[in-house]
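Annex B.
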Amino acid sequence: MNLSTAMKSLTYTLLLLPMLCWAETRERFVLIVGNNASATLGRPRLQFADDDAAKYDTVFRVLAPGAYVRVLTELDKDTARLFPEVRQRAEPPTLARLQEAFEDISRRVRENTRQGRESELYFLFAGHGDVEQGKGFLELADGAFTSDALEEALSKIPVQRAHVVLDSCNSFFMLNPRKPGGRRYATPVDSAEAMGRRLQNVGVLLSTSAEAEVYEWSELQSGIFSHAVRSGLLGAADGDGDGAVSYEELAAFVETASHEVKNPAFRPHVFARGPSGDNQVHLMESGVVTGAVLDVGETEPVRLVVRDAEGLRWIDSHSEAGHRVHLRLPQAIRGGSVERVLADGSSERFGLPAEQGTLSSLVSVERVLEARGITDPLRMLFAQPFGPRALADFRGAQAATPTPVYGISREDGDRMGLLLGQLGRQQRQSRHVEGALRLTGGAAMGLAGGLNLRAGGYKAASWSYLGASALLLGAGTWSLLSSTEGEEVEAEYRRALLTQEDHALVVARTEERLRSIAVTEERNRFALKLTGAFVLATGAALTVWMEDVKPPLPENYGRALNRLAGPAFMIAGTSFLLDAFLQRSPAEHVLEAWSSGRAPREVPRMSISLLPEGGAMMGMSGQF
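EF-hand domain-containing protein: predicted structure tokens.
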């Protein structure tokens, strides 16, 4: 060993010394659950959730040697052959077994506390999940494990720190309410406030995909998110070179790894929050890790794929130029190889070191003309280098981009489109009906004014009729030619879906716009109440005045029309008041349906039918 290498080893040892001391004072408990089946949701069976559970078991026995590790999964035939040791330890992923595992860990942690030792818990899940009535749940072999059950289990285990890593659909809602402040979506601010009150010592790293599938890749034989998490924990996510991996580093690594994937549906929408809201807390301290290490530090970017002897992919790393990473190699990888992926798509394969080794010291085994999986749509995973610069870019992007939102699924987006379509049609129909009524009323008022002038009635009344006629004709024309705010929201929503903007943000923005419309319509309803009361009072006063006017009007068409004006005003005012008090607006109905999660329903609608014997009938149907 030369002097330079010795100095580097000494420096690295000094960095790890505090972590080694910290590691001696805590015992780690690891509970891993992987479930391919979908007993509750009836979704297609996953292929690799059991593989993820087996790999997590292998990895954590390296990252936390001596830890108490339990794995709940049912290995399929192929996975059982790849992981014979895990097969012997694996337990069924049932509700009863999971509850028993949490209770067992709680007893052990309390015993540690009595002995003056601290404890740390890891709970990892891979499989199906969803959200119902504002509560998330994970699918086990025999039913749903709800967010309330998880929160209760975590609250009963008195650990100093707990880390929850979930790779499932809608995983955000396993630890966060769906509708903070009445909204269907949630933001990191909502989460920080909620978790700070309820689970202060719990950190979470979540794949917040809200789609109907947990995205897996056959080349990885794993879920995309879970593979990236394991790669990062094994050293690839150490962005600052301190030998440990924090929440922020792992989140940045997963985001960077999927950055070049073109299809946004395949990119994990990662949510990370460390215990007490501190993302600098370490998910894994390198001081507790034992086993072989591959030291990678080159003057140019280095992209590596680490496989075991069976060709199974374990680690993906793409370090920046000049950035040094130390990849931890589980025992299962021994005898495997590491591929260095070159810029032209080819790769060079090396044998892995038995203990410690640097990339530059490895002996080349063969040259592969094309990297494995290069034709796969997800081949751009890990295409972007990670290191201090990528970590800084991640921090800058978080500060510059809009606050992300969570909990909006593709199904939610479709529901929003259906509801907005209903709102647009209803308001368009109402606008046309109102326009036609205003034009009809304007024509009638104009005719009344003309007849009143011709009959020699009061000129003031005649000109009032003509003025009202002009206003109604103008308002009717405006109603027919303009568009309502609901129609505009629908059009903007359709246009936004055609862009590259995050669809969850589009839905959240639209929801806030609907709330704004509902507030405006509430104010309009109050104004309509005042208007109705004024028109009703005016009609009553006009009726009385017409009967008591001195000298009396001559008995002609003008007087007859003037006598009708008062009752007409009273009818109009009464209809305004009934409308204001009894009917909710279409936007409010749509917002209620959206917030409640119920299926779209018909909002109140107005219709006009011509009667065979003459005249017309106006009707309104819907829920009030």
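Residues 1-23, 371-375, 599-605 have pLDDT under 50 and may be disordered. The longest helix spans residues 503-548. Further annotation is deferred to the next reporting cycle.
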